[in-house]
């Protein structure tokens, strides 16, 4: 079998605790295997339908059958050359029949039994350990009966994900309880244990299948890392920034507890025995076999990655009670209290996805509705309406106890967020000094970055028990502060003058904002209102002219406007602006800029940056995410003055060209595995985004159209942003995977982003005018201003 290569693979137990990691790793292996088939029971096919559907979309074939039926197994073996068994402890006895049928089949040549876990032939004591007996029977059958089929054992040692958590009632056997900051340490805590993470089990199996010459007929002892309990404790203390309570236990205590459980017929005795074996050195080798698979092996998890405290999602959805991974296996047979809890909301991954998606749906609706509403009702009332949405949504989120209620709450906050992204940039642009609009316009993006950073930090420290509710609770505090603050915020002077027609009130509001000693005549003239001052000779003359006209019967339709006012302009609706040829170029410009903001790849970069930097910095990805957000915020603040100094269009072009160049460099660095260059290009990409495409798109609508159309135009812009964000979030993983599968390796998608950047640079050059230093929209577009 020297030329044998695994190509058509059948997996038993592929949806189980460890099986799902193996299935996922094989689906994503490069190069891909010719065929992957998963054999599952009717019950699993029903209960895990969503996971199976996802895998099917990635190329997995599924056979539903009975593991104990020879006919079903024989049919599944047809045409298969490699079989992987990932059955759990309860199904180990069925492997002998699977091996028997594999030996008698015409196609199966290689079999990997379910040996993932503790080494059952580590030393002379191993054959006597009770948890090993079923696996030892399988090995005995293989030695005595298999002649044609080759067998490889992938012995991974204990799963760190399970070992690290002290099971309820089993604390004496060692482990950690992160929500209580408590460690149960065996002996002095310096005894080494070799571990494999569940994710790395999948990597080892994939590497084994891609290395048949080095793997066939062998028992491979592989490990992610070797550490002591004290080293794990130090990592947890580093992440939480505080000392943990340490409770010492001894091997003698564990042995006594183990005997007691076996004598009582307690199922969890197996778990205590395994922990005792690990503590006695049953996972240590002079040298493991990682090097045998080195040429095909992906990078393995480090202790820092494996011990990472989780984000809020797992706690909110009841997958975990706290930031630590809760080992459900350790709690088998443990009698739980009947007391109910509202610390979490039970939900499936599909439910969590629906809750997340509903925020986006609300955001799109809010963005589309906000433009017309703020044009009719004003900026101040519109912002007050968003505060109400925030307040209502945050209160419901904080106390929600069901998926349905959480969906409603996220929809409400989504409406508020979507509307705010339309209204707030308009208000900032209309109250900011004309020469500083670019600088103040950047505050929209700065505020978004501050919010992201604040929420990530809260998530890092509050992902335990019911503390996650305070993450939503802070939204209540912010909403109350916004509601109270808006009571003293003046209405936009520009809206008051141009839409409401009350120029005198607008002038007073603007003077209040600028300060009583600052001249505002030029800004008032930009409204097309002229020098509006208190009634005097001009108003008296106008009144006299009107009286004379009435006496002469010249038929004036209405009396002159009251002093300090003029006829309000009718606002344009969402569809009206795009139909009007006067405003259509502006709609094309803002929609294009928003699509450029997303299609140049910023969201994909943010998603990829953690994995890239994680290879270089030995810290948890949660902290890395916070660090990246800090960098993004710092660069955005530093770049805030640039739109006013260099111009909006210049900043947009510099941003797009910079991101395109960074995408090209990132693609090449990934292809050639230059990790340091990859990390540098990620940071450069974020920096170039902050220069232009981050802040500038939010201020362009107010500078490309007049007040009568600005609300609808901003709605077009933010609606396009939500659509583009959805397209990138949905299509990027699909396209990225498809390209990597078709072309081999990774990084190909960033060549596409580089190409997009070139296209958008051409678009901005041709379709987006410069607005810096322009008095009004007519000057921006080079039109002659009409004087009636």
TrEMBL record:
Membrane topology recorded in Swiss-Prot or TrEMBL: Multi-pass membrane protein
Domain of life: Eukaryota
Subcellular location: Membrane
GO molecular function, one term: hexose transmembrane transporter activity
Membrane-crossing residue ranges in chain numbering: 350-369, 381-401, 407-428, 440-461, 467-489, 586-610, 616-639, 676-696, 716-735, 747-765
Signal peptide start-end: none
One term under GO cellular component: membrane
Start and end residues of each Major facilitator superfamily (MFS) profile domain: 275-772
Main location group: membrane
Keywords on record: Membrane, NADP, Oxidoreductase, Transmembrane, Transmembrane helix, Transport
Record-linked Pfam families: NmrA, Sugar_tr
InterPro entries: GLUT, MFS_dom, MFS_sugar_transport-like, MFS_trans_sf, NAD(P)-bd_dom_sf, NmrA-like, PCBER-like, Sugar/inositol_transpt
Family affiliation: Belongs to the major facilitator superfamily. Sugar transporter (TC 2.A.1.1) family.
Official protein name in the record: Major facilitator superfamily domain-containing protein
The species this protein was found in: Corynascus novoguineensis
């Amino acid at each position: 079998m020297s030329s044998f290569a695994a190509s058509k693979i059948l997996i038993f137990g592929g949806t189980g605790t460890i099986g799902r990691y193996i299935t996922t790793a094989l689906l994503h292996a490069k190069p891909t295997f010719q065929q992957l088939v998963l054999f599952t029971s009717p019950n699993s096919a029903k209960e895990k339908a969503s996971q199976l559907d996802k895998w099917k979309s990635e190329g997995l074939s599924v056979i539903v059958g009975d593991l104990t039926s020879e006919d079903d197994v024989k049919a599944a073996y047809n045409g298969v050359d490699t079989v992987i068994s990932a059955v759990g402890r309860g199904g180990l006895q069925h492997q002998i029949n699977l091996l028997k049928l594999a030996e008698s089949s015409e196609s199966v040549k290689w079999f990997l039994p379910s040996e993932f876990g503790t080494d059952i032939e580590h030393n002379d004591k191993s054959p006597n350990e009770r948890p090993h007996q079923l696996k030892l029977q399988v090995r005995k059958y293989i030695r005595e009966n298999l002649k044609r089929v080759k067998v490889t054992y992938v012995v991974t040692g204990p799963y760190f994900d399970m070992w690290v958590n002290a099971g309820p009632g089993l604390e004496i056997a060692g482990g950690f309880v992160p929500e209580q900051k408590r460690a149960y340490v065996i002996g002095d805590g310096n005894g080494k244990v070799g571990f494999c993470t569940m994710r790395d089990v999948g990597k080892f199996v994939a590497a084994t299948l891609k290395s048949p010459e080095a793997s066939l007929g062998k028992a491979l002892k592989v490990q992610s890392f070797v550490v002591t309990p004290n080293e794990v404790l130090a990592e947890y203390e580093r992440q939480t920034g505080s000392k943990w309570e340490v409770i010492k236990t001894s091997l003698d205590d564990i042995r006594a507890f183990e005997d007691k459980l076996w004598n009582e017929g307690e199922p969890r005795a197996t778990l205590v025995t395994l922990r005792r074996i690990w503590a006695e050195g049953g996972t240590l080798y002079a040298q493991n076999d990682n090097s045998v698979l080195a040429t095909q092996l992906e990078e393995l998890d480090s202790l820092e990655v494996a011990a990472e405290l989780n984000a809020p999602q797992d706690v909110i959805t009841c997958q975990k009670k706290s930031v630590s991974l809760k080992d459900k296996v350790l709690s088998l047979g443990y009698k739980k209290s009947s007391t109910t809890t509202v610390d979490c909301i039970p939900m499936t991954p599909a439910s969590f996805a629906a809750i997340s998606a509903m925020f986006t749906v609300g955001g799109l609706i809010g963005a589309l509705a906000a433009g017309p509403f703020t044009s009719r009702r004003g900026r101040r009332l519109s912002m007050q309406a968003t505060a109400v949405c925030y307040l209502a949504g945050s209160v419901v989120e904080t106390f929600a106890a069901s998926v349905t209620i959480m969906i409603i709450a996220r929809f409400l906050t989504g409406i508020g967020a979507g509307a705010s992204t339309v209204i707030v940039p308009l208000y900032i642009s209309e109250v900011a000094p004309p020469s500083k609009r670019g600088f103040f316009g950047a505050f929209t993006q700065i505020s978004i970055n501050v919010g992201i950073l604040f929420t990530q930090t809260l998530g890092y420290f509050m992902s335990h028990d019911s503390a996650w509710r305070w993450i939503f609770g802070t939204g209540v505090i912010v909403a109350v502060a916004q509601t109270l603050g808006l009571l003293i915020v003046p209405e936009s002077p520009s809206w008051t003058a141009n839409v409401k027609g009350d120029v005198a009130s607008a002038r007073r509001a603007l003077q209040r904002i600028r300060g009583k000693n600052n001249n505002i005549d030029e800004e008032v003239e930009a409204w097309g209102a002229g020098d509006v001052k208190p009634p005097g000779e001009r108003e008296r003359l106008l009144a006299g002219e009107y009286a004379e006209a009435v006496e002469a019967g010249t038929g004036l339709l209405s009396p002159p406007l009251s002093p300090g006012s003029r006829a309000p302009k009718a606002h344009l609706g969402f569809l009206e602006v795009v139909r009007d040829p006067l405003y259509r170029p502006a709609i094309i410009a803002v929609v294009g800029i928003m699509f450029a903001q997303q299609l140049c790849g910023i969201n994909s970069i943010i998603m990829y940056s953690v994995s890239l930097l994680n290879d270089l910095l030995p810290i948890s990805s949660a902290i890395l995410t916070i660090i990246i957000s800090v960098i993004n915020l710092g660069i955005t603040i530093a770049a805030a003055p640039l739109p006013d100094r260099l111009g909006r269009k210049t900043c947009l072009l510099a941003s797009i060209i910079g991101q395109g160049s960074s995408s090209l460099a990132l693609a090449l660095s990934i292809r050639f595995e230059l990790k340091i260059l990859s990390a540098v290009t990620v940071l450069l990409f974020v920096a170039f985004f902050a220069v232009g495409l981050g802040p500038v798109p939010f201020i362009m609508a107010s500078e490309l159209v007049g007040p009568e159309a600005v609300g609808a135009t901003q709605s077009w812009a933010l609606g396009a942003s939500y659509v583009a964000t959805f397209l990138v979030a949905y299509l990027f993983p699909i396209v990225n995977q498809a390209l990597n599968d078709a072309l081999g390796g990774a990084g190909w998608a960033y060549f596409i982003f580089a190409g997009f950047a070139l296209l958008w640079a051409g678009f901005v050059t041709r379709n987006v005018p410069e607005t810096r230093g322009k008095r009004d929209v007519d000057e921006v577009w080079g039109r002659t201003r009409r004087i009636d």
